[in-house]
Amino acid sequence: MPPCNTPPPSPGISNADDGDDELYEDEVLEEVPVDENGAPPLEDEENISDEDDLVELPGGIDQLESIMETMQQAKDNSIAVFKDHGKAVFSCAFHPELENVVVSGGEDDAAYIWDPTNTDSKQKLDDWRDSVNCVTWSNDGQHLAACDMAGNIKVFKYPGLTVEWSFEVGDINWLKWHPVANVLFAGTADSEMWMWKIPSGDSKLFQGQGEKTECGEILADGKRAVCGYSDGSLRQFDLKSGNTVNTFPKGLAHIDVVNCVSGHLNNTLFLSGSMDGTAKLWNSTSGKVVGTLLCGAREEENSSSSVECAIF
Question: What is the separation of C-alpha 49 from the centre of its chain, rounded to a whole number of angstroms?
Fold first, then answer.
């Protein structure tokens, strides 16, 4: 008996119990597969290709790595490339007056004089005992100084490149000329800064406190020098007397290796950069810090924001 108040079915139309859920082919819009729980598959599962769609590289993983490396290579914007060094290049310097003269030193125990306009090699300076890690021209361009990691220093007369003076010390971290005079400076792993008059070789030694002399700068007056050390300290020397003018100990200066120092032309300020992620501006007369530039989230040892170079 039909439910109360339910009208009778219209003639020619079947009851719901007689197959109302049946679908015809022309009524199907899309067929969606389901799992055993009646749920559709995940989106990424639908996008998985069959093995027949995979392309096998003849060179295997090596070819794939080569393709990826090629895609990741940065665009080379250089106008010239000098390739005579067989290994890493550690130092290079333009001649101060001649635009077609460059010197470079590298891990291949050699230094080269070459022309940057066409990359032609002018001369090879060999006879070194280790990697040539520092090369630098004097201010007038008449002398070239170079050293290797074994502590051998040579000064060449330019042009001609004949050895005018040589010396041997401990491991050398940096090499620099006086801004005016033919006076050469070097910092060593033995906490020393050496000063030599060229070509006489008259010398003076400035001692640290046992830490490596990582960097150095001759201030604009040519009478004082500042050295940075591996313990984070700084020292300022009077070049004539050899005395220490100012000492900036670890903590006050930096808490990690001092990577670089640079003097301002006003002869009062100098800048130091450290592995602790800070660069600090100093008054060379008063010995006080003028300001601190925080290059990372905070000052810390072995900072990921280490200041590798700073220059005025």
Answer: 43
